[in-house]
Every structure is written in C-alpha cells, then in structure tokens.
Design goal:
The chain is mostly beta strands and 170 residues long. It contains no helices and nine strands. Strands 1, 2, 3, 4, 5, 8 and 9 form a seven-stranded antiparallel sheet that branches. A two-stranded antiparallel sheet has the order 6-7.
Length: 170
C-alpha cells in the first residue's frame, strides 16, 4: 500500500436462486451466480517497478459462474422445533463458469513500445474453476429470545480436479 503496488479486486455477484419446497422438511435449490469482477494491478501490466505513469491497469471478467444444485432437509420437525433447528444439504457444483476468461494486459515490447496482450485473467476473478464439485452444508438457527437469535452456516466444497490447466500472467 505504501508503494502503491497493491492489487485491488472489485467483485459484484448476483446469486439467482430458485427453491422448490416439497414438504415441511425437504427442499431443492438451484443457484446461478452472475459475476462482475475488476482487478486493478501494476505487476500484471507494466510491472511494479515501472516508471510509466499509466502502469496501473485493469482486467475484467463478467458472466455466469459455476451453477449449483442442492437438496436440503430440516433435521428436526419444524412444527415442534420452534426455538431452533438444523438444516443439512448436499449439492453438486457444475463447471458452467468460464475458467479461462481472457482480457487484455498492457506490456512494453522489447523496443519499449506499448502493446496489449490477450491472456487469462487472474484466478481470483475467473468465473469458474473448471471442475465438477460436491458440497455439504449445515445451516442452523436458535432463538435466544423474541429479539435475539443466532444463525450459522457451514459450507464445504470439494473439487476432485486439482488443476484446470489455465495459466496466469505470473
């Protein structure tokens, strides 16, 4: 921050979700994220040591992310558990987001001229990870009083694919 070379990510996500409730205990949800990312950096463009006054530039990504389908079950009968309950969920994440999204990076050629190079954006702003994943989820609430409640969520995603083969500017 002191040198002004920090990387800044701006991320805006819209999670569009459809939920079908089958009965008091079972439901299924479909989630489609719409993602807009902007990444501001120097090192990916002209470099952190550049004397170019326009060394800081942006790369962007926009589109649909990895979609998810999940099944949920309330663990205790909601008709009897007024003070609190736990909901367990199992899901599958589909590789629908572009994990090779590209934008232009500003570089200097060997002769010192400005050029734009098309390449994959940093993984922190990619729209997907390129693999099918499986999720487990635990949601819960507990009413301490009429005015105070506790809510919690545990979510874990495992993706068997370790690498997707997309390179970065590093």
């Amino acid at each position: 921050v002191e040198n002004g070379t920090e990387v800044i990510n701006y991320s805006l996500n819209w999670d569009l979700t459809l939920t079908r409730i089958f009965n008091t205990r079972w439901s299924v949800s479909f989630n489609m994220p719409v993602i807009s990312n902007v990444r501001s950096s120097m090192y990916e463009h002209y470099g952190n040591n550049s004397t170019n006054p326009n060394a800081r530039n942006k790369t962007k990504s926009f589109g649909i992310g990895d979609m998810r389908l999940a099944v949920y079950r309330w663990m205790f009968d909601p008709a009897k558990s007024h003070k609190g309950n736990l909901q367990a969920g199992l899901g599958i994440k589909l590789p629908t987001g572009d994990y090779q999204y590209q934008d232009y990076f500003h570089k200097l050629t060997s002769s010192g001229a400005d050029s734009s190079v098309l390449g994959p954006v940093d993984q922190s702003i990619q729209l997907g990870d390129g693999g099918t994943g499986f999720s487990i989820e635990l949601n819960g609430y507990y009413n301490l009083s009429h005015r105070v409640s506790l809510y919690g969520n545990f979510y874990y995603l495992v993706n068997p694919r370790e690498q997707n083969g997309t390179s970065t500017s590093r």
